[in-house]
């Protein structure tokens, strides 16, 4: 039984920290595949009218030329963040001609590994490195795995809160060190309790047969082109989704920034025999950046990450070691095809509440045994999370999913009531999802399976109909002239920025060549 947060919440109120606690900065990164009217992956290059995928601040590509990524600015107002995300969808939809934006995490029908085109970023050093990194992902894991899409939720609290909270806890650490330690405490609790998000928001219980590409599996058939698990919540986050045999035994510590940096650095500098056999440079062909367990930090698959905005020439680890953790990135959120944007304001308020719970709840260090226990819980919830009698592991034995969920909701409601003193809508958001504990049929994963069963459509057919419906809605609600001009100018200026970068590097290379000739 976890300790009640009531004393801590009373301390926050007495210290006048409720208002600073609500100054949450959020950013959303959402991926979406471009598909044809027949539900197949687009093979064309990233549209020029969307700008440069290398330099555009808000519209880029993830792994594939066909996998768009929308990035909102970080801000404190939920409606503005979601409003900007909607504008990105609406602008993009008007530039896609006959294409659609795929509304789900698991991909459309694929025609084998090579049907997923690797993203191109031009001829600059940065552009070539980004492409080579993706080539490395191909030879390590395959392109099909990289066609999965998701939503990343970025979350941070204000310095005014951190300073007051540091004083409340009587910490003698610097503000930078205190904030980093507290974000890692949040991360540890997220790993303990994040199964609840997989249950409530998992929206990938089924997938196209093409995704398996002949690989062995334990999935059941539903129709002619659909695989699924009856009680699955998020196949995207299961062993079928993002997976890496090389990373299985990494055990990156989240007990402190020092330990996290140590373990990640080791993975970045340790060769992995299968990757060594693939080779780095083979007959003039660059297959991967290196043969280490991780090519770069971002290759580490995790459901949550500590983050800091980097400066020129910095790696993410260098930035965090120099200036501490700035925010956290939640990465276990499926795109909900039942929602126009895949996420809505109610879910955002619930995420705020849940992440504050993870911060404020006691968070002891995670040892090896607990790490293994949490991994088993993760598998159970992703693959069979809606099973009525599902049991999860705790330090004191197994506990039913519903019983544990009710304990968590009691704490979440207390936090939401506190937040509503300085804002609004938090308690309503928490209570909106509470019935899902007792009624698994209300979860997105169950509702998607219900739709497939009721319509008799396969996964790809149903999602393609949804893609067409949503894309047409965005096309029929055009941006204002001012908004359209803003995004058009961003596209133009990003293309110009890439061109200047490539020209400058070409000129530099030519000058170096002339110098060598002169010598």
List strands and helices in order, with pairings.
Elements: H1 6-14, H2 18-21, E1 24-35, E2 59-61, E3 67-71, H3 78-94, E4 100-101, H4 125-141, H5 143-146, E5 151-157, H6 159-169, H7 175-193, H8 195-201, E6 206-208, E7 220-221, E8 226-228, H9 245-248, H10 257-268, H11 273-278, E9 281-282, E10 285-286, E11 304-307, H12 316-323, E12 327-333, H13 345-360, H14 368-384, E13 391-394, E14 397-400, H15 401-419, H16 426-433, H17 435-438, H18 444-455, H19 459-476, H20 481-518
Helix pairs in contact: 3-19, 7-13, 8-14, 13-15, 13-16, 15-16
Provide a descriptive summary of the structure in words:
By secondary structure, the chain is of the alpha+beta class. α3 packs across α19 and α13 crosses α15.
% residues in beta strands: 5-15%
What global shape is seen? globular
User: How would you describe the oligomerization state of the chains in this entry?
Assistant: single chain
Distance between the termini: 74 Å
Mean pLDDT equals 95
Number of strands: 14
Number of helices: 20
Specify Rg, calculated over alpha carbons. Answer: 23 Å
Helix content: 40-55%
Report the structural category: alpha+beta
Largest sheet: 7 strands, antiparallel
Poorly predicted sequence stretches spanning 5 or more consecutive residues: none
């Amino acid at each position: 039984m976890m300790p009640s947060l009531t004393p801590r919440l009373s301390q926050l109120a007495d210290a006048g920290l409720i208002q600073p606690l609500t100054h949450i900065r959020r950013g959303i990164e959402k991926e979406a595949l471009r598909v044809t009217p027949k539900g197949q992956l687009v093979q064309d290059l990233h549209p020029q009218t969307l700008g440069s995928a290398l330099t555009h601040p808000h519209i880029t590509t993830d792994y594939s030329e066909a996998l768009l990524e929308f990035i909102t600015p970080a801000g404190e107002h939920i409606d503005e963040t979601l409003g900007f995300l909607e504008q990105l969808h609406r602008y993009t939809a008007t530039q896609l001609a006959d294409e659609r934006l795929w509304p789900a995490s698991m991909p459309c029908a694929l025609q084998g590994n090579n049907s997923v085109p690797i993203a191109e970023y031009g001829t600059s050093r940065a552009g070539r490195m980004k492409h080579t990194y993706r080539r490395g992902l191909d030879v390590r894991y395959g392109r099909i795995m990289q066609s999965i899409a998701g939503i990343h939720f970025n979350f941070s609290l204000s310095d005014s809160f951190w300073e007051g909270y540091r004083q409340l806890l009587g910490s003698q650490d610097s503000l930078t060190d205190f904030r980093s330690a507290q974000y890692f405490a949040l991360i540890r609790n997220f790993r303990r309790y994040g199964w609840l998000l997989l249950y409530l928001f998992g929206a990938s219980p089924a997938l196209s047969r093409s995704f398996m590409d002949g690989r062995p599996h334990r999935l059941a058939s539903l129709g002619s082109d659909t695989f699924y698990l009856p009680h699955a919540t998020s196949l995207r986050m299961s062993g079928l989704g993002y997976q890496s045999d090389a990373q299985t035994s990494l055990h990156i510590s989240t007990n402190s920034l020092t330990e996290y940096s140590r373990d990640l650095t080791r993975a970045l500098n340790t060769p992995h025999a299968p990757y060594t056999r693939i080779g780095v440079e083979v007959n003039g062909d660059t297959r991967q950046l290196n043969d280490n367990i991780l090519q770069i930090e971002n290759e580490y698959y995790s459901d949550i990450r500590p983050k800091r905005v980097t400066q020129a020439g910095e790696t993410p680890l260098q930035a965090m070691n120099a200036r501490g953790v700035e925010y956290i990135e939640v990465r276990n959120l499926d795109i909900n095809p039942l929602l126009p944007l895949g996420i809505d304001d109610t879910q955002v308020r619930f995420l705020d509440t849940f992440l504050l719970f993870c911060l404020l709840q006691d968070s002891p260090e995670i040892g090896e045994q607990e790490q293994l226990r949490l991994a088993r819980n993760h598998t159970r919830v992703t693959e069979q999370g809606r099973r009525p009698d599902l049991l999860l592991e705790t330090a004191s034995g197994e506990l039913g999913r519903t019983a544990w969920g009710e304990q968590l909701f009691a704490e979440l409601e207390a936090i939401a009531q506190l937040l509503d003193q300085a804002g609004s809508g938090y308690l309503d958001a928490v209570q909106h999802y509470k019935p899902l504990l007792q009624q698994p049929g209300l979860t997105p994963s169950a509702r998607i399976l219900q739709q497939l069963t009721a319509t008799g459509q396969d996964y790809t057919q149903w999602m393609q109909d949804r893609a067409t419906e949503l894309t047409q809605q965005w096309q029929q609600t055009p941006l204002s002239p001012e908004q359209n001009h803003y995004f058009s100018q961003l596209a133009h200026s990003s293309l110009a920025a890439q061109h200047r970068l490539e020209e400058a590097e070409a000129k530099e290379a030519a000058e170096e060549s002339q110098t060598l000739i002169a010598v």
